[in-house]
Amino acid sequence: MKKNTSSKTTKPGNDKKVSGYPTGCTIGLDVSDEYTYVAVIDEAGELVGEEQLRTRESELRKWLSQVPASVVALETGTHSRWIEKAARSGGHRVLVANARQVRLIYAGTNKTDKLDARKLARLARVDPQLLSPIQHRSDREHEALWMIGAREALVEVRTKLINTVRGAVKAMGARVPSCGSEAFTGRAHEVLPSGLRRSLAPLLEQLDSINETIQEYERELEHLARTEYPETELMTQVPGVGTIAALTFRLTIGDAQRFERSRDVGCYVGLRPKRDQSGEQDPALGISKAGNPRLRRTLVNCAHYILGPFGPDTDLRRWGLGKAYAGAKEAKGRSGNKKRAVVAVARKLAVLLHRLWITGEVYEPLRNSQRRVTSAAA
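^ that's the sequence the OP posted. Answer follows.
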């Protein structure tokens, strides 16, 4: 006799006690900002229930505490951290799927929240590795990263305000001289046309306040790196890598031992070229852009400095410049080569930072070049 798979439905806000689910179930949670769709399958793979709950901690925690210990699968997202905690407190085993890797879900042609919850549950039941599960970083690391994010947001606001003032002054026939962000308000006051003072003076006041807040964040982050994450000092040995960049790398990676090889870090941050090989076809594609976008952006910014006019002579710079100007006689390829070189240097930089972190070695800027000279002399 076929098992009854009729779905149970709990409307949002319904406090009715959850009951009737067998032990050893697998639960898929498709989480949106307002509602979470739940699919429950038993050990035989039969759908034994579905729920719709509000995405609120109290409601989800209560529901999870009333269900027998199960495997709970959900995708990474804004709410995944606290939902994982709520599920673990209810005695469940939690799998947090890498949303970018579960192609069956994000690239489906018949995509609904209900079906996504079912797919998560079935994938978790068949083979958890199909979900490419991730591990959330610690609360302390998460809080520190948000401090970096808050500073980054203020820097973006500051840039927009500076550009607004520059554009307005230029339209009146004047110009604010080139200067650093901290000195901008003083230079702007000197050339600000009288007709714009009423409009732009409040923006300049806001810029002063933003500069002070950014400096406070930077002092706090410097202290945090020095007292809680001293390994960042190993990374700042590399020219172009400041404390905030090193701290971003350290906090995003979390555990240095999660990678068997330092080379794997470049893939983790999405700086590896994508592959779409089929038979004789193996086209050159762009980078995967997987992983944390802030870390990837930070590494690329460091690579720009390393290859730029102020970057000191190092093995990494020499290697990158060789990549940038390979085939420079072809005028059309120069800009493309430079962009590819920046990405390649960022990828090598990620590998280098991880290597310094796990070995504690002193960074030697021209180590490889000196070895080649010594070998040639011998």
